[in-house]
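Can't attach files on this board, so I'm pasting raw text. These are the components:
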Amino acid sequence: MKTKILALLFLIVVSLSFAYISPSYSFRFIYTADFSNDYPELVPSYYISTNFWMNASLMGSDFSGSFSTSGVNLDSVELNFSKNNFGLNIYKNRTFGNTNDYLGLYKFDIGSDGMMLKFSNFYFFAYNSLSLNYLKYEGNNKLFIYGLRNSQSDFLVQFTFPLFVNLLFESIYTNYGTFDLEKGVYQLGVVDRNWNWGIKYTFAGSEVSLPDFTNVNTTNRHAINLWYNFSKFGIWGNIKSDEEGLNFKELSEIGINLDFSKFSASISKTGFNEFGLTPDLWGQFNITINYPYNLFGFNGKISYSFGNPAHNTVGTLGEVYYLELLRSFGNLSFFAKFQRIVGVYEIRNTMYAEVKLSGFSNGEVKLTIGNGDFYNVNTFKKIISLEFNTWW
Amino acid sequence: MTKKLILVMILALAVLSFAGVYVESGKVVFTFEVDANQVYLAGNFNNWLPDSLAMENENGIWKISLELQPGEYQYKFVIDGTKWVEDPEAPSYVDDGFGGKNGAFLLIEENGVLVIKAVGEESPGTKIKYEINENREDTIYVDEEGYIIIRYYNPEAEYVMIAGNFNDWDPESLEMYEAGDGWWEAVLELEPGIYEYKFVINGENWIEDPNAFAYVDDGFGGKNSVLAVYEEDSKLIVSAPREEQSEVETASIEIPLGVSVIDGKVYFKVEKKEATKAYLAGTFNNWDPQSIEMKNVNGYWQVSLELNPGKYQYKFVFIINDNQTWQEDPFAPGYVPDGFGGKNGIFELVEQDGSLVILKPEETSSQSSSSLSGNYSFTLTYKYDQDIILKGYGFDNSLNLIFKPSDELEFSLKYSGATIDNAKLEFSWQKLNLMAHYNLPLDLAIEGISSGVFVNYDNKFFVDIGALNDVLPFLLWVRFGDFSVYYGNKYFYGENAIFAGYDFEFSSIDFELFGGYFVESSNFAISINTNSKNWNSEFSYVNNIISLNIDVYGWEIFGNYSMLDSSYEISLSAPLFEIYKIFGGYRHSSLIDKSHIGFGLFEDDYSLRLKIRTEASNIFLDIFGEINF
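---
Top answer:
Structure tokens for the assembled complex are below.
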């Protein structure tokens, strides 16, 4: 028991010492009262979360690095060594590695452990927390990758020919061994030098096997992407089939974007086998109009959208109304937004508001009501949070 | 007169002490102080070629001057043609994509003079003076399809390219077509805005358009041609820049990558060619991944927000092949961990003199960084696998931080694995030294209790008091000159013990003797350490284990033998070319035999070791590293 007390005392000393010594820390304290549970009596439940981190940079003659701590935990580390032409990077719980190809062979968006060895333009990535190693060569307008994962392999070739327009070619071939066109994904493209217009064709074979951590879309056997953006007008279209190379009509999409200083609008339609006079016969579509405004010292955005599906959270035909208000009074700022979804079977209203006081030299206090993530949550959450955010 | 001289000297010193990059006589001068045989400059201005721009050594300072056009630049120094390092005095930094940093700056023209600014600190709406070309022929027009046509007459040219701020001044990307009779023609697709350009003849000579609408100083004694594109009645027209609009239009085409403030709005700009859509998410919109859509302008995604002063974190959300990918801004002013192993961009928006500016998050001051030291070590383990050759097997690491905010106070903390492993807090006041240690035994020849409070008075009287269930373990010792006497109460292995130590020198060899007796188990323990100029040795007999470690001229032999189970271990390490070592070892026990062989690099502030080891029929690869800072 005495040992535990001693340990606890130590941690308190640790916290105080950190706070005193280093200016490169931040500390966040959130006090949340959640009234969303329907108990007979309204009993708020409280959550307190702290976020205490440090990101110290180390600079030496041949190395550099950083590490971060969260609470009493060593959260993540990155070290970079370099000697002559060689480089060695070590990662602990950091997102690292990039294939930077047009199709997106591997994507890494959560932290991993591992290392990267570099020699000139050659890179070798070995992952400790993923079953993957890959070798990459990145040259001027060309890219080669050879990856190994479990008992499978991936081979990527990408070329860009910068002529009057950009000509693109990329091929990802999986399960290297006996050759079969169906084991690959291939892309050809002709794109404006500024990417303001272009056309790309992608073919995905039926025998392609890619890991979860990829951006490559193999659900469309054939896909043609076209776009044309000019000044305030843009039009795009995706002609797509399913995995069997069928159902172009159902899956293809087209969209138009208009962007004027007074307002912006977009129209999109997915599938062309459903047409009728009334909107319930239009299939998948979306029409959105955004209007930024400035009125009585408030500014913000009003938007209206009509479509099927109406919203990320509502799978039917419907409308979405959205209003945003923003006004500041010196160091005090006020922000609120409202959303109303009118679907076929449901009506969902939600709002979020915050008042922020930011007059401190390195801190701010924020009072919020509701959940501001309208994309994923469409009903009002009875949550009040008081957040103290400091950094030094 | 004296005052003026002092003022001039101060100004001169101020210029000399400016960052590693500055403008002198219209040229951008890069300086770098380092002890090297040759230093090169590499950056996006020379396609990152490591040996094309050799710097000259002037009294220990490496220097090079370049004529650069206004724009955004990144660079590094290449020492001896091989080692890439960033400029410690760069105006700003950006992530180099490989875990390091590139020096970065914006070169902009203010009142006809080139100035260097940190990336993200560009001042908006800079007033530019245009010189109208009164004697021009009409060679620039908009065709029926909305393309801007620029014609140029040069019958002697073999080929002509056009370069301007519409193509990042790339002299190779836009070729002019031969239109016959010595005329060349450029076909450009431009949005409304003000553009500067030049013709590049035969890939060598940069010249201005004799029929340009206007000119502007190019900062090197020459001129850039200027072309303004306006939209009237939904049609594009070309002309010289109009006086009243030049500020706004200039600002609109010079939004820097990353985050910046222009006309009171916060602009975000990023490049992601493969994305079909892009959104901005951050603390300003509760990380909603789709509420702030970015617009694609000439291959860059950008959006502006009206924000109040405060500190903000953000990320970009790209839609790539219908998948949502979150990515940090490579040009963010600073970063913080995002809690998922990645990082968020961070910036602080403050109001200065009535206008908003973006500040980088505060960095550790030199004072506090000098008070922080420590070391970090890691072992990355891979196991040989038939399918993928190297299969991840383990990652162990520890971080030891030592804070020394003043002479009186020292605090150390060690993280091992993922949590705090041990810690130490030390106060010194005159002859008194007070230390609290947690999970960290005192540095004695025999390991004692791990947590306690230690008092040292004048290096003569010492006591360490710990805490165990039901007992109060302590060690008391007194030093008389070179002789010490110790009494431990349940301090070593939970036993009462009496020890004595004696330090002396004989024939230029330092001896440290330490030995004693465990009362309950009647066991003896002994330790003999010797130190000489070129060799040292450590011998101990504790807990029925004999250990011997000898180091002669960098050759190191270590062995131990347990009298309890007859297990033993032996290892050898030999120096190679001063900073390298090879090593190997063998361990035998009743359960398993292990052997290893390896190679290491040992520098003063870091070491790296590569070890191949076998355990039964398994083969492992260990990469071990340690850095001191």
